[in-house]
Specification:
Layout (H helix, E strand, L loop, with lengths): L2 E3 L16 H11 L15 H4 L1 E7 L5 H7 L13 E5 L17 E3 L8 H20 L7 E6 L2 E3 L1 H8 L9 E3 L7 E2 L6 E2 L8 E4 H7 L5 H10 L4 H12 L5 E2 L20 H6 L2 E3 L10 H12 L3 H17 L35
Parallel strand pairs: 2-3, 2-5, 3-4, 7-11
Antiparallel strand pairs: 1-4, 5-10, 6-12, 7-10, 8-9
This protein binds 2-acetamido-2-deoxy-beta-D-glucopyranose (NAG) (5 copies).
One 2-acetamido-2-deoxy-beta-D-glucopyranose binds next to loops.
Length: 358
């Protein structure tokens, strides 16, 4: 079971804590002095599609430190702009007023286990769908899309809205980034399908959501996923393409996940490419989540036609890797307390447990 809570609208104030090198901070200070933050990328009232998309962001009690970066970048801390944004989490521990969960208007506790095995992922997915159906059948019959994301992504909301508004939600659409180029084969069958990686963000139209409904309830989704030995996103590909005959609308050039290291992707982009992206993924080794506010700043600069400042920041980002050739062997994702360092680190990686004041 899940429950919805609406924490008190007291906003937690987050200081701008850019944790990159001093040079990044200085560069940013010089760039940000003149422009207010959160002025762009907010949801304009005129943007109707924004009101018709349910956005879910999957997080975990052990990954709370990631949420700060979302609020410092693409997610507005303003509750009025979080109307359609729902965090889903396995648990939340709310020990005091200053918990980060209170910075979000809607938090859904799924009570799914906190690990990453097939059952848990599928359990979490089932609750994302359940949320859509519950809202749609009660207070929010105006919802026409559901897009789901992870808590380690940058989402360019304006680009998302612009892209989605081209589609007719009364027809079934399954939109995402192709996960593996090879199509998956069904066991003991000659049919194949492709699926969208959940780590890059996936959108479902209202028509497809209605078709999916009998297959994705919390009671049966996880059980069926596990019996096919598929993670949630692969199982969604199976359901869409094989069971419902709705194949993936792939937008691989504009949706990105953490699986793509910046080596392989970002450095081949131009600034224009970057600003066209709908989602960006962040690998945990060199490009940590503290890049999120920086990317957001860059996109704001472009939106505000501050091309000179944008170019300077962009060149800095592109050269960051060359300027920081240190050996990253043994690094691990410190943004979730449940992740453990890999043994045999060559460089002393001080294990800092990201802790939110509680
Ligand atoms: C979280 O804790 C605060 C302070 O104790 C309380 O006011 C608030 O209602 C709690 N929220 C939930 C969802 O329990
Ligand atoms: C599977 O293969 C058989 C034999 O080649 C063929 O008759 C059948 O149509 C195929 N089924 C599908 C769904 O492609
Ligand atoms: C599946 O969809 C395609 C195109 O949308 C259509 O041509 C085909 O007839 C459908 N197949 C089935 C079995 O409904
Ligand atoms: C990084 O460290 C590992 C382990 O010591 C070593 O095998 C590897 O060659 C190093 N890579 C670079 C690029 O220095
Ligand atoms: C890795 O671990 C083994 C066994 O504990 C140890 O002998 C070896 O020196 C370690 N290597 C490094 C690079 O720390």
């Amino acid at each position: 079971m899940h429950r919805i809570f609406r924490p008190s609208p007291l906003h937690i104030r987050y200081g701008i804590s850019l944790l990159l090198s001093l040079s990044v901070s200085l560069l940013l200070i010089s760039l940000t002095t003149h422009y207010p933050s959160h002025s762009i990328g907010s949801i304009g009232k005129s943007n109707e599609i924004a009101d018709r998309i349910l956005l879910t962001i999957r997080t975990s009690n052990s990954c709370q430190s990631r949420l700060t970066y979302l609020l410092q970048s693409w997610l507005s801390p303003d509750f009025s702009e979080q109307r359609n944004i729902y965090l889903t989490t396995d648990r939340f521990h709310n020990q005091s007023k200053s918990t980060i969960w209170n910075a979000f208007r809607h938090v859904i506790q799924t009570d799914c286990p906190m690990t990453h095995n097939l059952y848990d992922l599928c359990c979490k997915s089932a609750h994302e769908f359940d949320l859509f159906y519950e809202l749609h059948s009660t207070t929010r019959s105006d919802l026409q899309w559901m897009c789901r994301f992870d808590d380690d992504q940058y989402v360019n909301l304006n680009n998302l809205y612009q892209y989605i508004s081209k589609f007719d939600s009364s027809r079934p659409y399954y939109i995402g980034r192709t996960s593996v180029s090879k199509r998956l084969r069904i066991r003991n069958d000659n049919r194949t399908y492709s699926f969208a990686t959940y780590g890059a963000g996936v959108c479902y139209s209202q028509a497809l959501l209605q078709l999916l409904r009998p297959h994705v309830s919390p009671k049966i989704f996880a059980k069926n996923c596990v019996s096919r030995s598929l993670p949630d996103d692969a199982y969604m590909g199976y359901l869409s393409e094989i069971v419902l005959n709705v194949s993936l609308t792939a937008i691989n050039d504009r949706l990105h996940s953490h699986l793509q290291t910046l080596d392989n992707s970002w450095r081949t982009y131009s600034l224009a490419d970057l600003t066209r992206m709908i989602t960006l993924g962040f690998a945990w080794d060199r490009y940590k989540l503290d890049w999120l506010p920086i990317i957001h700043r860059l996109i704001q600069l472009v939106d505000q036609n501050q091309y000179e400042a944008a170019d300077r920041l962009w060149l800095f980002l592109r050269d960051y890797e060359k300027a920081h050739p240190e050996n990253l062997t043994g690094q691990y994702d410190q943004s979730c307390t449940s992740y453990k360092p890999k043994p045999n680190t060559t460089k002393s990686t001080k294990v800092k447990t990201p802790k939110i004041k509680s």
